[in-house]
Design brief:
5-stranded parallel β-sheet; globular; alpha/beta; Rossmann fold; about 180 residues
Length: about 180
């Protein structure tokens, strides 16, 4: 538990080829508050000159018309990010797939270094996955997420501790997965 908590306090924001924005829920054609803050953070990284490319990740839910990545891209475009700075990964349904499929997209554009954008508690698991995939990646967590109350924040923390433990226990299986294009 402590590892997830203390890792969440860390930031490694630096120059990189691209920001990989991990998917989160979208409501129709609107990003959820969590996804919106991830997008806003990536926009700031782009505007600050840290990255020239943003890779939005996340597939389509069973009843969704748009993928999380498409919703994120539309939002970023509306905020003035140029189309040529945006790449999409639209097939993933979880963090492992977010990063594995983003890696495939990035390879097609010779992008080699990445800032991983997500919420702070998600960072430990996301970075473990990035390391296992061989990505040269650095943490760049959002710091603007407003938790409704202590219960919501605690629930998010416990969820990520559980997710990280499950990932570690399933690591041999995760490492043997191959993601085809």
């Amino acid at each position: 538990m402590a590892e997830v908590y203390f890792y969440a306090q860390r930031t490694e924001t630096r120059q990189a080829d691209a920001a990989i924005v991990l998917g989160a829920a979208a409501y129709g054609n609107r990003p959820s508050p969590v996804l919106r803050e991830r997008i806003n953070h990536a926009i700031e990284l782009y505007r600050g000159g840290y990255v020239d490319t943003i890779i939005f990740t996340g597939g389509r839910g069973r009843t969704s018309r748009w993928s999380e990545a498409e919703v994120a891209a539309r939002y970023a475009l509306a905020q003035g990010i140029p189309q040529e700075a945006i790449l999409l990964e639209t097939r993933s349904t979880n963090t492992v797939e977010n990063l594995a499929y983003a890696q495939q997209v990035a390879a097609g554009y010779d992008l080699q270094t990445f800032l991983i954008v997500s919420t702070p508690f998600h960072m430990r698991r996301a970075m473990a996955i990035a390391e296992d995939l061989g990505l040269e990646a650095y943490t760049s967590p959002t710091r603007t997420m407003r938790w409704i109350n202590w219960y919501t924040r605690s629930r998010a923390f416990v969820r990520e501790v559980g997710g990280y433990i499950i990932y570690l226990l399933d690591q041999p299986a995760a490492a043997s997965n191959t993601f085809s294009v």
